[in-house]
Amino acid sequence: MIFRALLVVIAALLVALVVNAGEPVAPRQLASQLTIANPPLVLDVRSQAEFDAGHVPGAVLIPHDQLAERLDEVPADRDVVVYCHSGRRATLAERVLVENGRTVSQLDGSWIGWQAAGLPVEGSEPRP
Hints:
With 128 residues, the chain is of the alpha/beta class. The protein has one domain: Oxidized Rhodanese, domain 1, CATH 3.40.250.10. Helices cover 40% and strands 10% of the residues. The chain has five helices and four strands; from the N terminus they run ααβαββαβα. The chain has helices spanning 2-20, 27-33, 48-53, 88-99, 110-116, and strands spanning 41-44, 60-61, 80-83, 104-106. The longest helix is centred in the first third of the chain and has 19 residues, at 2-20. The radius of gyration is 16 Å and the shape is globular. Residues 6-20 have low confidence and may be disordered.
């Protein structure tokens, strides 16, 4: 009986993770989405220093190690695109967000991918 209940709970959690975790968003696709009404919330989960050096225009900074305590800053009714430098911290943040009912996608290639695409940057990082 307990085993069956545990299986049901695990199945429900897996369904929630699959439903709320979206496909990666390509950098140019995100750049286009930022120009429309009701764009996704772009969430940068790097450190303050990394954010200050340069970030996706309009991104909101919540370092990945503060996300659980600052979930109220991420609207539940808005799609989220999360990124870090290379993807490791974004994956951790995505897990926290999905477990708390947010609809989340990762920026494909994270910050490295955004820069490689030559897209606009806010902050003090010079363009190559």
